[in-house]
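Researcher: Structure for this, please.
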Amino acid sequence: MRLSYTATLDREEALRRLDRLLIPGSVLDAGLARRIDRLALAFRSYAENYPLPFWAPGLSVSNEMRGLTEALLPISQVRGVFELLLRRGCRFPPFLSGSYLRSCASWLDLLQKHRPQLTHADPATTLRELARDGAARNAFLFALLLPHHFGGGFDRYPEQSSWLEGWLKERAGRFKGGMRVLDSACGSGEGTYQLAELLEAAGLKGKGGVVHGSTLEPIELFAGAHLFFPHDQERERAYRGRVAPLFVRPDAARPEFYLDRVGSAASREPYHLVICNGLLGGPLMHDPDRLAAAFKGLASRLVPGGLLLAADRFHAGWRLRVPVETLYTLMRANGLTPAEVPEGIGGVKTG
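Model: Predicted structure, token format:
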């Protein structure tokens, strides 16, 4: 699926684009209705045989509750119908493997993780509502793939940002054709907009600067490009307030977001700066083969002399498994010379 968006604050344009990404309105057909009805029967049996307090918002869930619920109403049974519903509502295969839908140990855990989107103990009740109501289904999908604590947020790497502002200012006169920067594995895009802010602070505005953000997940991509969080209006308001100046100044770099996998071959003109924060060597990417492919892909995105930065302050516990020297070795193997930088690692492409 080839997908890219130029960032916009226009709500109507965002909704038009969303209809090309997600199916509007009801998706409740006969096949899905049968699956939901079977799940309703399974829940009724569970309710008749479950001897402990019934779930309601605010209930403290014990391990005994989890175990009994899993025995009587397996999460795999619930998950299958939710995934069928979400696939029916998308024009692309939704990336659900990293979501709580896959990682929760029981239906009770999923209920606890997804308040206020999930308020009914009976999953069939929720599924019928989501199947009929496109807006509610979209909000649930965004909440599932962009939970409150997951990834996003501004100013997560202040030392890196401060250092990078100085690095950009030192080089401001070298990029007559404009500086190209990429936030790879950008998530919901906060780091991408911060790069645009840093270019402006360094005096590189109005000089053909290009700011791109890339991710492999279409919902993250859409959220970042449109400042769109239907499950979290407070986050959306704060996000839009922060980046609004970039949209009113005509000489500011307007980010573009596109689908891309870190370990794939480069598909765009190479960049002077690539940032890949919070990914390499951490819980989402620590397999040796995937790490090697990631460094190869990131190096291919740089011009000779270009800089790669990867901050990782949240990965302290993973450094026993993937020490910094291992990352430096992978850098060198892919034509990157390690550079001393704050907050994480950096490397300059040789050649």
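Researcher: Any notable elements?
Model: The chain is about 45% helix and 10% strand. The longest helix spans residues 30-49.
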